[in-house]
Amino acid sequence: MVEETLGSVDRITTQEHPVDRTKPLPQILDKIEENITLVAQAASKAEEAAKSARKVAESATRAFSEAEKRVEEARKAGEKAVEDATRAAAEAVAKAEEAIKTELLQRIEMLEKGLKNIEDTVPNQKMIILREITRKEAKQEIEILFKKGYTLFYSDIAEQLSIDIQLVVEICNDLQQSGEIEVVDDTVRKR
Question: What H or E segment, with its residue span, contains residue 184?
Fold first, then answer.
């Protein structure tokens, strides 16, 4: 490289700047030597610049490689975080479902025990499903029972007709006041 540069200096000196033959040879040689020194310094600076550029390029390549590694690490870390979060959420849902299931089973067991207690305390009582009828219809059905000549308790009337006992008592009180029936010792019969 230096030789090429020196050759081009020779061409410059000989072609563009013809050697002044009027000057003494030592001055000409000094001038040539000065030019060679300048060219050598320029070549040295160029070589140093090339080395620096090479170092910068190598450093940039290493930095790029490191950056690629960091990007890959970040991608893997992100994927792991998503997997961990998904797993944690699934575990939380499973725990919540299990807790709800346990709570529901405990409540069912408690209700079953309560129902059993009720069944045990009321073994001989009959359950009546009440009908919803008007007061007028209930009065007509009660009058029909008394026309058959029965003597009944309020509870018997309520059970046979499947109507509310309070309604039976109210209607029987009305019939008693009108003189159609009489009440003797909690029994009701036609007059």
Answer: strand 181-184
- For residues 152 and 145, the answer to whether their CB atoms sit within 8 Å is yes
Q: Give Cα separations from 67 to 59, 75, 91, 169 (angstroms).
A: 12, 12, 35, 93
Structure tokens at 55: 């170092």
Q: Indicate the fold that domain 135-190 takes in CATH.
A: Arc Repressor Mutant, subunit A (1.10.10)
Token pair, residue 75, equals 């991608």
Look at the alpha carbons of 80, 84, 85, 87 in this order and tell me if their dihedral is positive or negative: positive
58-99 tens-digit pLDDT: 988 988 888 898 899 989 889 988 898 899 889 888 988 888
**Exposed, middle or buried: residue 1 (CB in 10 Å: 0-12, 13-18, 19+)?**
exposed
**Burial of residue 32 (number of CB atoms within 10 Å: 0-12, 13-18, 19+):** middle
Residues 6 or more apart from 157 whose CB is under 8 A from it?
Answer: 142, 145, 163, 168, 172, 188
**pTM, full prediction:** 0.35
